[in-house]
Specification:
The chain is mainly alpha-helical. It has 14 helices and no strands.
Length: about 300
Amino acid sequence: MMGKGELQIFLGASLFAFIPVAISLDPASSMVSLLTGRLVVAVVVLGIIKGKGLGARALNKSQFIKLTVWSVLMLGAMLSYFYAIAVTGMAVSASLLGMQPLLLVLMSVVFLKERLSILAVAGALLTLVGVYLITSAGLSGNNFFLYGMVAAIFSAFLLGLIFVFQKKHLMEIDAMDAVFYQSLLQLPLLIPLFLFYPPQFSSDYFIAITLLGLVCTVGSYGLIYSGAKKVSTQKIGVLQCIEYVIPVFIGILIFNETPGTTVCVGSALILAASSMVMMKTKTARIYNPKRLSSI
């Protein structure tokens, strides 16, 4: 049975399927320009919706520092991922980003002292295989550039760390407030990048950043951060990987595409993994830092 938290993460991750759609609408604009525009839209929309509420809940010094660190982690993850896409291609980057669920399972045990769930580990491994199968059609020996691959793995690590950090330090902050501050605090950090990547815009720029900011940031992160408060950390990474499956269905239903066998098998594995981690079962204490520290 899918609980509210699982459903929010599931739906929020599904909205990530619109990221490649938005980017394809404006291939002429630079990634830095799109990333900046996405954040501006998110800040403006949330500022209008929650303006008075944000003012009434002024941040204290500790919260500001924690949110700043959290924002730096997110910016590092996004820049690493965009760099990986540019160097190695979407398929290789997505495959390596599929390591996030497994990394998140390990981080939850080490940093949050959660008990290790057999189903979460199995789901993470199934997800890793599923992501590889879905993206394997685009894998090519010419695309395996070392720096890009390292960047994708680093992005997966940072994305996992973001949820661990939220669980440990930001549980008292409303999900939409968190999205607002995370987006706002990233903007000043992007300014130096324009010295190396001058702004590039096209006529479709505003359509693209509206989709990226409204759907893929406000809607997606709002749902995911809210759901993350209600479920164990080990489930988050696996549930998020539905974003690799949704484009398959979009291709079939809208563009009349016929996916290959490996894509179908990979999608089935990810759906199976998502179902596994939503099962209510006892967890197994394979490794528990509290227990080890007392020995």
